[in-house]
Design a protein that fits this description.
- This protein is 33% helix and 28% strand.
- Helix 1 runs parallel beside helix 2, helix 2 packs across helix 3 and helix 5 runs antiparallel to helix 6.
- The longest helix is centred in the N-terminal third of the chain and has 18 residues.
- The chain starts with a helix and ends in an 8-residue tail after the last strand.
- 38% of the residues are buried.
Length: 250
């Protein structure tokens, strides 16, 4: 029985690994890095990137309720819902997520839900349209110091039949950093103490001049060192840096 269970977990892990994109799409004015370390063989964190055309990139990071195989199945369903809907209303994230909420609500029990951040970045205008469905507020670092948070604009996905959201917009300028993360980052523990938002922000401010891959690795190293390698939840983050795009003259 143990051998069969282990084999099933390995199969599930391989399937889930194929569902998550390995290399995020690169834009003309934004560099991206993503990291995901699951606490178990399979996990409930989900991230994805979508080419919406016209220089627009959709990005999502979600954290479904539960752990292990059950969370992995719920994550796969959520991914399927979002991928099936994101291109139907590429410029209307609120309408898209309302349909996703309906699909998830109809197919799962009320106690099964997800926090989710969905953003659309425009490569030409540097604008970010986003909906935050009860997710940890992403961090924007402006000019290496000023920090703002992209707070919730809706409740969680999948728990309620009647669901509404607000779409907000934020302009990112060259030099800005955007960090989207799951709660496994800030809720990592050492004894009775959590890693917390302030430690995350301090790490980001200290490493802000590094390439995005270096920033992502610095954050994960800091979290794992703080918790002495003891990981109770998935650790996922997306790091994006905005830069000036200049056409090459030929």
């Amino acid at each position: 029985v143990e051998r069969r269970t282990s084999l099933e977990l390995e199969i599930a892990k391989n399937v889930q690994d194929r569902l998550l994109p390995k290399v995020p799409a690169q834009l003309k004015s934004m560099n991206l890095a993503v990291r995901c370390i699951q606490a178990k063989s399979v996990g409930g964190d989900y991230y994805d990137f979508f080419d919406l055309g016209g220089g627009r990139l959709g990005l999502v990071l979600a954290d479904v309720s539960g752990k292990g195989i059950h969370a992995a199945l719920l994550m796969a369903n959520l991914q399927a819902y979002i991928r099936s809907q994101c291109n139907t209303s590429p410029g209307r994230p609120g309408q898209m997520l309302k349909r996703v909420n309906r699909l998830m609500w109809e197919s799962t029990a009320p106690e099964h839900f997800a926090t989710l951040f969905y953003g659309i970045y425009d490569d030409h205008s540097h604008s970010l349209s986003y909906v935050n469905c009860g997710h940890n507020p992403p961090v924007v670092i402006h000019r290496g110091r000023i920090v703002r948070r992209l707070t919730a604009t809706a409740t969680v996905i999948g728990a309620f039949e009647q669901w509404h959201c607000e779409v907000r917009r934020s302009r990112l300028v060259p030099g800005d950093l955007l960090i989207v993360f799951s709660d496994g980052i800030t809720e990592a523990v050492c004894g009775d103490e959590q890693f917390g938002d302030q430690r995350l922000i301090d790490l980001l401010l200290a490493s802000g001049r590094l390439p995005v891959d270096g920033i992502a690795d610095t954050v994960l190293t800091g979290v794992l060192e703080f918790s002495a390698g003891q990981q109770s939840d998935d650790l996922t983050l997306i790091v994006a840096s905005v830069h000036e795009y200049r056409r090459r003259h030929t």
